[in-house]
Amino acid sequence: xxxxxxxxxxxxxxxxAEGEALLAAFIDDRLVAVGGLTREPAPAPEQxxxxxxxxxxxxxxxxxxxxxxxxALIQAAATARRLTVHAGSEEAAAFWIAQGFRPVEGEAWxxxxxxxxx
Length: 118
What we know:
The chain is of the alpha+beta class. The protein has helices at residues 2-10, 65-76, 90-98, and strands spanning 21-27, 30-39, 48-56, 82-85, 102-103, 111-114. The chain has one domain: Aminopeptidase, CATH 3.40.630. It has 3 helices and 6 strands. It is globular. The protein starts with a helix and ends with a strand. The relative contact order is 0.17.
């Protein structure tokens, strides 16, 4: 969360361009998760968005919160043909695979989801 707050405060990332989003999840009026969607910063062959800054509090993990947040972000990226993520750990990689992303090599991202309908 500190990185998200720092990027927001500095203006480095505001999730404000067309198609971008920053979503939050609450349980009993308590913020338990955030996740963002930005245009892919690395060169890509088509319109590509990156899922980023997905954080879920420990108390909310294993309750479907992250999956629901990812589903909402995927819906927000309706115009993107490709969605990417950079999984920072094996646990994160397993999560993204469970969300329909596949591992890739030789790209600026670790996993992607290609969408034929976009």
